[in-house]
């Protein structure tokens, strides 16, 4: 099974650089032939980037998460400009809106999000979007500032009606381990109905562990469990599903 993990916080799984490399190699042995490394802030991006420089199957996104809105860092835009110039940096993110934990205020989050959409267009890169309790504002912003290279709503948590609107705006939908939970009926409906060409998968490590591994910290090597579950929902062979989502990820990130 050939898999692509479109969202993994490798730096949060383990701080040690050697352990981070081991995690990526372990994933590769389990069929995860591509990983997008995600960091919430720019300091961590540069640290993890250096740690994983020799892991050529790991790609990177650079950006500022809404969790950092109150302290995005001095010259944060210039640092994103610098990050984009590094090898295997393929997306801006994660960015977006999070009204659940109330990081800063809504206006400051929206401003940070919009600015990163503009940066993504500047560099012709897709956007990795975080959405928690902010769906209406996310769609409103994307409808007026549609990213040139599109993007992905990661760790999807909305319903099928929302997904249809996002797809119409050029977005991909990414499912994490929470889609394997029995009570996640909205996610099951969406996963069954979404055009397969717009679907990608992620580990969201070390969070959102698949039901099969409940009680453990999530790792990219567990991604097969999410793929197998979603394939069964759609009535597809797991190998066929994995291959299609792998190709979708490569298309999304221009690989």
UniProtKB/TrEMBL annotation:
The keyword Hydrolase applies. The keyword Hydrolase applies. Keywords: Hydrolase, Metal-binding. CDD domains: TatD_DNAse. SUPFAM superfamilies: Metallo-dependent hydrolases (SSF51556). One of its GO terms (molecular function) is hydrolase activity, acting on ester bonds. Pfam families: TatD_DNase (PF01026). A divalent metal cation 1 binds at residues 7, 9, 94. A divalent metal cation 2 binds at residues 130, 154. Belongs to the metallo-dependent hydrolases superfamily. TatD-type hydrolase family. This is Hydrolase TatD.
